[in-house]
Records
---
Amino acid sequence: MQQWARFAILGAMFVTAYLLILAWQKDYGQKAADHVEPPAVVAQAGNNSADLPTQQSNSAATDVPQANNTAQAATSSAQTTQHGLISVKTDLYNVWIDPKGGDIVRLELLSHEKSKDSKQPFVMLQNDKNIYVAQSGLVGPNGPDQNSTGRPLYETAKTAYSLADGKVETDKEGQTHKVLEVPMVFKMANGVEVFKTYRFTEGAYPIGLKQTVVNRSNANWQGQLFAQLKRDDAIDPGKSSQGIFTLGTYLGGAWGTPDEHYNKLKFANFDDEKLNQQAKGGWIGIVQHYFVSAWIPDVGYTAHLESRNSGKDHIIGFRSPMVDVPAGKQYEFKATLYSGPKIQSELKDLAVGLNQTVDYGWLWPIAKLLFVGLQFFHGIVGNWGWSIILLTILVKLILWPLSAKSYRSMAKMRVIAPEMQRMKEEFGEDRMRFSQEMMALYKREQVNPLSGCLPLLLQMPIFLALYWVLMESVELRHAPWILWIQDLSAMDPWFILPLIMGVTMFIQQMLNPQPADPMQAKVFRLMPIIFTVFMLFFPAGLVLYWVINNSITIFQQWFINKNIEKQRAKTAE
């Protein structure tokens, strides 16, 4: 029976390691992120009308929606082939807008660094060596984005905007924020004016989009709003370098509706499993490690969600219903763009299921509880490393009654080990008699050898869930602890924590009953070394959890061993 318990513990440890290795391999990309060129060399994204979606399902040559009717060929007299980008600076963003089409062609996150060793802001959207842009406009029979001369060239009052110059507004909760609006206008030859306005709010990542059609012509205007994300096959720049391993999560498309909250759609399946869904209150997005970009249609209309490939680029977006604007009237389209870190508190208020882009895997109930606990302790101590330590202590306290029973059984096994060795020598090769005597000894001493598996089986799902919390929670990206640990989501650069973990695992092993079988004893002596090698490349925060867990277990096991030995001595007297 003891032998089976040993094998069960060994198997559980290897299962843990195997599941973590599988997690490493899931959705991996290539080697390293491409170099990001400075904003000065950003290309003009809106020059190509092939970036827009099409109503023709088999039209692979175009990205923009094409109506069945010929688009109106009226253009602005101000349209030229040369134009500069419009820059916008807020407390969270550096944004560049291409007036040709009014697309966001570059977006930098000022609160997130490109890497731990770089002070450059993280580049979310770009249009240079790599393509990842947020496009929007009006298509249909009279849509300006669907005319014979290409995307419309919008006019602006200036080419540089700053939130510092914005106006102060009060929200529904009575809090004041600065708000910056970037207005653009396109005047068509027939008198129709198209206004496109981006709205930036202080301290908030969502960007509002308002597209207004003012029909000053003598005929009805017909068209629809489209908004989409266009990305090439570049690797995920949000992945963390882990030495010979590279931690990464899902990179690809995603969408949701009130009925189907969160669905993944890999880039390779944008055509084969094409998104073609009607939804009111839905969203589309592109998900990567720690960050997400998403378009959220206004809840006032039912949007058509769609995906397709255009050459080597992948496009996922939506279209509003076709709108008829009578002469002398106007109509306003609305949508919201989110392009930034996967902050659950912000995402859950934008659209149903958008917060599920923070994907904790199949252990998400445990992972969410762990994250809530980490947030609670972080609110007290202000450091994610100490928060992990406090969370570990809390988890051990919760599991203490269950694990204590197991440790008492293991302590008794340690005490009766000499008696078992004596029985083995006495009965020699008579295995049946030895098994009978051993079971009688277990019953007399009230020992359950399988109970030694319980602590590890309890810790395994917590360990795996914490792994995904560290992987998916952007709050822990580049989060420092103390001294040499300056990024809890990356491996320990000096391998100190993994070595400490190996030492604690060895001490813990010495406090447990040793296997009677010599081969098992050799295997178990190798386990601290094997797991130390594994832990060399794990996130430092995860290794920190295991070190504290082992340290508490050592104290708990030592305390119980001493009590059992005292009780045994009293009984012997």
---
Amino acid sequence: MSRRSRPLMRASGALLIASTLVASSVTPASADPRPGHGGSERGRADYTLTVLHSNDGESKLLGAPADADYGGAARFTSLLHQLRDAERSPRAARRGEARRRGVVTVSSGDVFLAGPQFAASQQDGAPYYDALATGYADYDAISMGNHEFDLGPDTYAEFIAATPGDTPYLVSNMDVSAEPALAELKEKGRIAPSTVVRQRGERIGIVGAITPLLPSISSPRDAVVDPDVRGAVQDEVDALTARGIDKIIVVSHLQGIGEDKKLARELRDVDVMVAGGGHETQASAGTPLVPDDVVPNDPETGEPLEYPLWVADSTGTQVPIVTAGSDYKYVGRLVVNFDSNGKVTSVADRSAPVRVSGVGDDAVEPDPDVYSEVHEPVAAYVAGLAESTAATTDVGLDGRRDPGVRTGETNLGNLLADALLATGRANAAAYGVPEPRIALQNGGGIRNNSVIGPGRVSELDTYTIAPFPNQVVVVPELPRAQIKELLENGVSSMPAADGRFAQVAGMDFSYDVSRTAQQVDDDGNVLREGERVRDLVLHDGTVIVSDGEVVDGPPITVATIDFSARGGDQWPFRGADYTVVGANYQTALFDYLTKDLGGRVTAADYPEDGSGRITPLG
């Protein structure tokens, strides 16, 4: 791989500093850097730093899911290098900016995601294509994301080791010492709580953080997340300021920019925050966007999420927060001006996400190395999947998120739950477990976010629907009260869309969102009993819940996926024994379509509006 050189050095990890060193002042800057609040660009800055950033690429290497003329790792890399080269030049200085300037490039995590494009890397002898693309991007730092742990810590460690160069993966609030492969990478400096980039005479500190929800939404195993994100981040920031570093960026993957806003209010001495995990498209009026992308409103203010979003920290200093959508569709560009004391004086008006386009006036040519080494082999693999037919469907199969699989029954949710149940029953004897009577599929595991059909359903579609490495498991003989608790968890976030919403097979149930929602901790212990599930009847007529009360009777065996059985999405299995029964959920879906359904999905079996398995009351 040909690497682009750059004039900077790194020192990974903020070290413990002797108490005799004095931390930098936390006094707020004298001028509010926000436009219209004293943050004009009159006068020249002492130093200008451009932060180029991305997040949530999630293995969308070939192009944006809704429009392949945009995004794609090869075009993204080309645009990133163009912006970086331009911003480094003293000639880039606009009014109010310094000729002494630097550029840092960061990612907020979720670089890869299990699915058809990542599956190309799982073939014998194949490289990690996402790692190759990451190497060509030449980031200064990458925050750990949640999806990188979906395949477990060992796969993540392999991925980090396979990433060309020496880019550190940052996380300040995680202890990886109990995971040998990750611990070894930490010893080598590839995993660190923070890093320092030297750029044009300045040291820029970068601190990483990950969501405390990681154990319930992914598979970190024995990598332990500290829920005190503020404490972990502030400790790193304090260590950096004690070294005299007065330009500090926090790069986090907290699952939404709202979480970064909360964190910002509790911190001090942070100059820029780069968010990840929420997929928000953040832009000011007039910014060219990828077609059909929209700027959402901030739930807190009701106003559009402009770029940047300003939040006052614990000292009253305004901090810009940015994110850049997802799927390689944008390169975020934040141009920050500093005074001689290291305080942010303004953010340039041209700061904005820059869309990655292959058409029109802003089209960029794909990076030739990324195109030949990543795009072409992945495209060839995916094309093979697309040519393989799993079934034809007489009806559109609804896998949309909201409204959809995270808010209510859908026919695709029913189909996938039926596939789990069929696989559990077919393989139970071979694995020495009872045949399951019901199946549960979390809505968050259904990922296509679209309606498939009517028409042909390809093998590629099954990967798009069920991309994770989730294994089909059978959980024998759960008490009936626990079955109710599982369903209470599934509807506990309603009416909000949530990945824990349960798609079901082998039963019908009703729920009332006006009643008390169940609360559980990350271990599945019920902290507050739920009262939402009102009735639950198995398809053989067995009544499990009547008018909110559990009916006494023998336990029930359940088919589900290992993510849920381990307590993902806070499903209260509470360490119940389970057995993997020889298939992942994508394979279960493919086999169910091709074998059990004979290659055809009928409207009678899977009507568009569902078949009455889940009934909201009131």
---
Amino acid sequence: MHTQAIFELGQEAERLLQLALQNLNTLKTTSFTTQHDTNYFGQSYSGTSIPSKFCPRGIQAQQAMLQNELRKITQHEMVLAIVGTVKAGKSTTINAIIGTEVLPNRNRPMTALPTLIRHTPGQREPVLHFPYVQPIDKLMTALQLRLQQTDRETLSKQLEIDRDMLGLLTRITEGESFAKHYLGAQPIFHCLKSLNDLVRLSKALDVAFPFSAYAAIEHVPVIEVEFVHLAGMNESHGQLTLLDTPGPNEAGQPHLQKMLQEQLAQASAVLAVMDYTQLKSVSDEDVRKAILGTGASVPLYVLVNKFDQKDRNGDDEEQVKALISSTLMKGVIEPEHVFPVSSMWGYLANRARHELALHGKLPDPDTQRWVQDFADAALGRRWQHGDLADSGIVRQAAEMLWEDSQFDEPIKMVLHAAHANASMYALRSACQKLLSYTQGAEDYLNFRSHGLQIASEQLQHNIAALEDDMRLAASSQQSANVVVQSNVKQAVSAMSDFIQRYEQQINANIQDYFQHGKVPEKLTRQALAFGTQRGYDFNAQDETLSFDDEESAQIALHRIRASCEIILTAAQEKMTEELTHLFSYLEIELADTLRSTLKPIEARVAQGLSQAGFRTNISLPVFHVGLLNFNANQAFNELIEEQDIPVAQLRRPAGMRGTVARWLNSDGWGWEGYTVMQSRYVIALQDVQLKLRQHVAHFLLQLNQSMAAQIEIAVSEGMMAFFADFAQALETIRVNLQQSLTARQQNEDAVSALRLQLQQCVRITRYIQEDTRMLRDDIQTLFTVEQL
């Protein structure tokens, strides 16, 4: 409908991108950017060090980023990057999004290299294209030579040689290279796992893997397949492509963090896959940091996988959305862009539906393992082969499993929207990247222009003063650490007192319960949340509860446990709320401490810090309901005691006397007393109360120790990051001043020419920025029209 408008907007975006690339080429030739790829200490920028965006390598990276945006808009391609840890179920999620198995699951990482998965209508069987295979071939040759010099037994001590690795070693020895095309899921799986094993083998043999050769997105492997969820839909004016990215530190490869950030920067949007059961794990935190590093230039969505593993004490859907949007992701994502799902259920359900649509039945479960998994999830673990014969029942079960997976909402809101508006997503991505470039370029160029107007002596004085500030910042870290540790100690002590106070309150409520035989009135509202009004569970005057059969005893104990869990759940909610406030206050206090420590330095270089984009942030552990799970079941184990007690009974005596009594049917005589042992099932209420108190004390002790350790670690890491960022900002300013001094020391004609060149670059940058903002507004207007 809006093809002409999209075409015209695309033409404008191309023009602005070309202009920005020309501007960067101009900057590359200036005397400012012909040097200084090292820091103040003569070290190259590598690892976690980030060079200036306008040093030679920085300009090259920005050019690559803009070239990628130019490629995407000319091809009308929207790239949706999928990022997540190995255990989060990223491959399963991608399979669920596509609707069929494209990335087979494996226990170890499967994404050694970024992989594009492109929706290709009509391509039912996936095909992988790997045209840029030359760097891998060179690696294979190098590994072949190294293997000739390496004993296999020695290698086995450094590397797990399983069947897959053994096959790869044979392949390298025989000189078999990678093909450029693979058709079908299994050949694709074989190719991808071999690439991943190559990473492991290269590390073991100390041969560099050519990751840098695949930094450009056009060089990575591409899988073409029709997305089942998009089959039959009206074709959009654009191309939708998923980008499967390596997880940070995946397979013990720390450099993948940098590769991940580079790939995310090239995406049109990001879909993060998080593990519901591990939302606060270190690995998920690495993913969050990489995503937050992209800033606001890339739209973000989150799938919280494994939501099917939620138990009744776990965070519900709304709590998960609030936790991620407001806390874990620091407010950079809206709650409506967070989707709790079960990727495995979504994948199995949709694959079953797809098979039924194509063949009218499911494959043999004995030959297709996924069918067994589907039957377990959809029909229950007691399913029989005959249950799969009725296609109507199987189809209904698949639909119910799909509904339970909660995958329908993200498919419609993310996948369908991305497919329908791929071109506009690509255009919007280009605008965001252009605006990011122009904002940084204008600050840089203004700094440079101002530097040319300052005398050399003043620049030298500024550099010397700044170097003094850098040394002062390093020494200030020690004094700040003393203050911070004092704050941490106070916070840990306050938390300990807080937990001890709550333990006393919990024990008081437990004692109240056992004194009266029912949940305290002040917790009645919480009890009603369980769906029933709770009365008396037992007579509080009794010390023990005695039953004739074990089943009755179990029912009584279950009632007591349910009431005790009401008490613990009420405490859990209050503790969560108050500890959240405690940690929030501590975070603010620590940030204030660090800022006040460096305030004198910051005041002297405030302008430079602003131009360098300096910012501070300390991320403390977040206390939420998922960390408070009392799970009191263990406290109620083995509390029913079986006792044998004597019971007096009457019986007819043997012999003539008993016979005569039976004849006369007499109840008054002819009986004799005797004793038998009978089983009784006894619950000692004092033992129940004692064991519950012990459980609460043990749980809160572990909680206190765990949270104290988390605070210590988080503050330590936050301190290091804070001062590293501050030092990097100062170093960037120092390099800029040094380059200004170098330029200022040229003859006046050269300085004048450079000044004119910079002024021209500033004008072009402002022009690009102004036109890009207008283009962004036009694209947003078109988005709004499309959604009406």
---
Amino acid sequence: MAKPLEEYNRKRDFSATPEPSGAARRTRRKAAAAEHALQYCIQKHDATRLHYDFRLELDGTLKSWAVPKGPCLDPKVRRLAVHVEDHPLDYADFEGHIPEGHYGAGDVIVWDRGVWTPEGDPREGYRKGKLKFSLEGEKLSGSWNLVRTHMQGSKEQWFLIKSNDEAARPESEYDIVEDQPDSVISDRTIIPRQRGAKATEARRPIKTPARRRGQKEEGQRLANAREAPMPEKLTPQLATLVESVPDGDWRYEIKFDGYRIMARIERGKVRLITRNGHDWTAKMPRQAEALAALGLESAWLDGEVVVLNEEGLPDFQALQNAFDLGGSERIVYYLFDVPYLNGMDLREVAVEQRRAALAALMADNESPLLRFSEDFAEDPDAVLESACQMRLEGLIGKRAGSPYVSRRSSSWIKVKCQNRQEFIIVGYTDPKGARNAFGALLLGLHDEDSGQLRYAGKVGTGFNEATLRTVYKQLKAREIDRPAVVNPPTGADARGAHWLKPELMCEVAYAEMTRDGVIRHSVFHGLRSDKPAKAISRERAQPAEKVEEKAVPKRRSGQAKANADGVGQIKISHPDRIIDKTIGATKLELAQYYGRVAPWILPDLQGRPVALVRAPEGIDGELFFQKHAGKLSLPHVNQTEDPEDPQPVLLVDTPEGLVGAAQMGTIELHTWNATAPKLERPDRFILDLDPDPALPWKRMIEATQLTLTLLDELGLRSFLKTSGGKGIHVVVPLTRRLGWDAVKDFSQAIARHMAKLMPDRFSAISGPKNRVGKIFIDYLRNGRGATSVAAYSVRAREGLPVSVPIHREELADLKGANLWNIRNLFERLDELGDDDPWADMADTRQAITADMRRRLGMK
């Protein structure tokens, strides 16, 4: 009898494909299988043909079917579903690119996911070929059927059929695959590759007509424009991330490194509004004056504000400085769209016509502070390469003919630049699965200090059958017995390796390079022969043994002032120790994160007793939860007396303390709901919405919104943050009137009230078995000495996610609680600028009243 996942593993070379093997989590998942609802996922997969992979969790694996046309909500439509090999449970989160030459080569996104509930015995139904079940996902819901057919083929042929219920819709009225094309866990999409004759035509360089500058076309007619009142609010259209430039008719602009701003103009009055709906007109008075000078009756304009450096490139730090110093005369507003103009709603007008209208009205602009964001007629790959060489972020693509929609859309895409460098090919691995010739190239670089040739990682993506054959011929002629690098890889990376004379060179794009010089997420771009191999070295800074002192961003008004002086003097032992193998993050990188995030995290830590989650050997090793210093020396970590504890409790309230805690292996910081010296009176309570991990994320959003509604009705203002894991934390600040028991009882009453109103959604009882298919409202964090993870604390999970405060307005568009991590958080903070989601928390004055307790049924 075949072992689970045997066929899946046989078809894949995990040294070259990013797909999960499932080995790392198999034991853990099996142990937890009874403690969560059964999950399902649907992955959109652009392989030999674009199709949808439908997967149901059963007996520790994902039972899988390939559905060529995707699901249909019409009960009269039977969609072919070809049964394929089982996949590991952690495949349900997989998104990425499977390299050319490997089984299933192409792009993959998670199109839908959630929980499935079988009707009857699912094992019996699966064996007999007749599964009936209900789905609750981000996109799909209601009752469905999988039925095995008697059609002959190399694989079992099933049908996926929607049952006739309230979620059903005729195919003639609605196509969910076409209407909702994007990922549910990220901002990715898949732009299907065109094939055959159409593909050849689509790959030709995009040509756009020459612009008419300096003149307006009176009476210019815009198809689909309609008279409409001026919208009071308008949410900007957002771009979806794609891995590479797609085929088709797209118009490309530079991706600016600035702040997105919408301009509302009505009867000469200009308002400049951020993406989150905040009015920043007072911060940019000169730009408002320049817009007013355009003489528009009414308009909504879309664009991005930047500050340009001496080379004419956007400089985000300079933009921040301009806002901090009130220097709006340096800020340039690049306009790229006009969804409303002079009494006409243009949102249904094709993007190229909207932009032509915008270019025409900008022809009369005389201010250097306003500019039109030009697009390019050249080949987009060439434009992207030029943008990357100029150290720009990348490109924004807009599909010709597309309307303006106030949401993230696949008709606007963003293509980001990658790092590119030449490497020496020092070896290769054997192919696995459907791959021919070789699996991956092993790469090397000369160290700039010692001149030694060092291992720099591998690349298994970017090859087609032709390049595999061509490169392989050159590899075979250069084989040697021993590696030429001084630090050859070990373990799985070295298994089946063939070593080469260090003569061949190649150019590789990669997302990042770890501190030990190994690249990740790499793509092969071709062999190089224009340089001698000895000239190829790694571009890197000198190795550091201490935390480098970094510029600390200015703290927002109304919050504690942080001083990072002296942080650079804290020595970090074992700086290159890997604490998270999945991203190659080191102990030094973690310490640098805490040093840099000090201005944001310290307001949540000031005076609060803290418990540390330490992982001295990394997140895969043993974790220690530490509330007291004991005999351990924690550099720069302070202590304060707790009247009910013979040992003093810990305080981490300085930048030096943060870095000192990281030096001792601290990953997470958890805080009390009270501050010293008034430890007997909590100043807040926290509701930790903790879901069954299999639930769709939209259930978490709905649960948070329902909780916020209840708090609003009670008259309590609340603030939000992501947990960095699966849930959301609702933080309710309080004046210091009540003791611990009263506050905890009140938070428990909220949990019980919600669970009583909606028992199918919420649980007020702890334990995984009590939250199967539900969300546990964890009130237990509100007792004396209990803790919750601090805002901006790292979590000891794969990828090192961070718990992050968010605006209430951001909740509906949030795609998960672990979106931000130690490597992308500062992009988030840069985008927010002074727009701190928790800016008003310290000034919020409110208390739990007798009327609130009565309304919750408390005595």
